[in-house]
Amino acid sequence: MKLYDFPMAPSPRRVNVFLAEKGIEIEKVEVDLRQAEQMSEAFKLINPHCTVPVLELDDGTYISSIDAINRYLEEIYPEPPLFGTNAKERALINDWCHYINVNGFMAVAEALRNSASRMKDRAITGPHNFAQIPELAARGRERVGYFFEDLNAQLAKTKYVAGDAYSVADVGAMVVVDFATGMAKIELPESLTNLKRWYMEVSARPSASA
Ligand SMILES: N[C@@H](CCC(=O)N[C@@H](CS)C(=O)NCC(=O)O)C(=O)O
């Protein structure tokens, strides 16, 4: 098994943190996004969507979405469970992962990719170029604010994002908070005390440095 990776980017980090939680070490191949290596003809044969992470299985199969990669790893390495231990837990974790992808990750990406000068004409990932739309950057920042508020409200009720146990939903949400506050420079409001309590706890786990 091999992971096509770029450690500075949030999406591969969601797999790297997951691997660290499982205590798994696998071969990694760096795809330098700063050099646009994801757009090369050689990499398009690995992932025509031109994104990282990609997991290559020993039989040459490629898996290119974060959730599919982490689910595959969960089946191969079930301990510790990060996708829940029964039908209800799995459903809630999947629910939150979907919410985090659509309203967290995509909102930060919308804010960043429509404003950063290095992403000119790269407002959306993939093989096709799209121009930036400044209004979408502003909308993305607004959406991230609501995402923080929603997580804060959830974390008033639960210890972790999807319930009492740490799960892949916490991995996703932590990486999105770091993506927002780091690359997109969107501050976490001091008033969101539940979110801050959770964020400090999950960020202190050894896996967070992956
Ligand atoms: N397929 C991934 C998305 C992966 C993704 O967006 N990766 C970004 C890095 S965070 C990327 O490869 N960007 C390439 C680019 O900016 O052209 C998913 O499951 O959501």
What would your notes on this structure say?
With 210 residues, the protein is of the alpha+beta class. The chain folds into two domains: 2-76, Glutaredoxin (3-Layer(aba) Sandwich), CATH 3.40.30.10; 87-209, Up-down Bundle (Glutathione S-transferase Yfyf (Class Pi), Chain A, domain 2), CATH 1.20.1050. It is 50% helix and 6% strand. It contains seven helices and four strands, in the order βαβαββααααα. The protein has a four-stranded mixed beta sheet. A hairpin with a 5-residue loop joins β3 and β4 (62-63). It is globular, with a radius of gyration of 17 Å. The two termini are 18 Å apart. The model has no long low-confidence stretch (mean pLDDT 98). Glutathione (GSH) binds at residues 9-11, 33, 38, 50-52, 64-66, 122, 125.
Short descriptors:
binds glutathione; 4-stranded mixed beta sheet; Glutaredoxin; 210 residues; 4 strands; alpha+beta; Glutathione S-transferase Yfyf (Class Pi), Chain A, domain 2
